[in-house]
Amino acid sequence: LWLLLLFVGPGVLAMLGENDGPSMLSYAASGATYGAGFFLPFIVVTFAAAVFVQNMGVRVGVTTHRGFSELIFQRYGRFWGWVSSIDLIFTNVVTLIAELVAIRVGLAFFGVPGWVAVAGTVGLVALSSFAGSYRRWQSVALSLAAFNLLFLIAAFFSRPAPGALAGAFLTWQPVPGGPVSDFLLIAASNIGATVTPWMLFFQQSATTDKGLTSQDLRGGKTDTFIGGALAAITGCAALVIAVPLFTHGIQVTADGGAGYASALQPLIGTVGSALFAFGLIEAGALAVLTISASSAYALGEVVPGGAHSFNDTARSSRVFHSANLGITLIAGLITLIPGAPLLSIALNANLLATIFMPAALVFLLLLANDRKLMGAARNGPLANAFGIGITVIITVSGAAYAVVAFAQDLR
Amino acid sequence: MSPSMDRPSPAQPRNGTPQSEPIEGLLPEQLVAATSIALPRAHPRRRVRVLLWALRVLLFTLTALVVFVFVRGL
Asked: How far is A219 from chain B (nearest CA, A)?
């Protein structure tokens, strides 16, 4: 158990960090729109794909001892290095705004002002960033991650029928009806809520920062599997929590989560809805830590002039620590601008993640097949078949998502 | 080998040649030195270069669609 605890970290944090505010709201929207059916096993399958992809990143990390950005920059040149980093930073700023909106709305449920929520979040990032070591930063993040299980407790307040849940997992029934475009948007949103570029950048760099070697690969994979299993369980729990809204035919407008917590209150009680709101705050806070860290790793690895680790002081790794804190500060300040289109930004967070994911996946596959880098640890035919399959599915769903959103907007 | 959590991070890459020795056999200081050397550029095959160009076009097209939708939604 002690040995396992040594390895636990990057995988669990990447997976539970991805169960962020917008993701949990996507799962809740699936439950509220279609009930317990097709999307329950769908969430499990998307997490299985995420575990597979993340483990490939861990293998590249422990074999090369280099971060994802660093490898793209050095092997494929400045253009792709900067495109990948800028894509990531842009998507991360948008996602961080969505996280801060979720935190603000969740805390507003308990009467906390918006500026206090933003200041507290920036303070949390600063505290963990300057804690002096990767281990301390990871301890703070893992402590927050434990609260993701609040969604599991809250799910019991919605009194799910065990037979219906078992039937959904076994048969994928009932299959969603209604307009295909709505189904496509929810499906792509769920994929974007599970497999995202920042997870790849974060886990590979954090694995390197933690000092894992190829002899620790098995431990790293176990870490990812545990994270994936926990994230799938809590993701499904978020869907189950919202099923009573589907049963009672209640439609909820997307307003950062407050609508779901308030609408659920008469159906699952004050405790259940408060747990859901608390869960959104925790999900947002953990995601802020991991997403800002992924930005810091990406920039620290490509901007010359310093180290890029939580183990280094602010003086020796200025770019890394400035990026970690700065990106959260920028996102926080944007959320405080009166009249800023926060809802529109939050709704586009998962969409951006879905359309930028294919580029990250293609580079992961190229790096994992790079004979000079990986040697005997390079991908085999089965890993390539799964990897290419996942890349094609995500590319098609991301493109379909963007085209449908565009077509709907033109109407 | 158990992970060393407080390992100092490698310095920024310099131009050089890739490490040829097995990286796992290196001491921590040697590992830092080995990973501080920039790797050489990859020379992808033609079909990979075509794939990367297709990726550029897809990325910029989808980004344009999303930016359009976002701006219209303001």
From this structure: 9
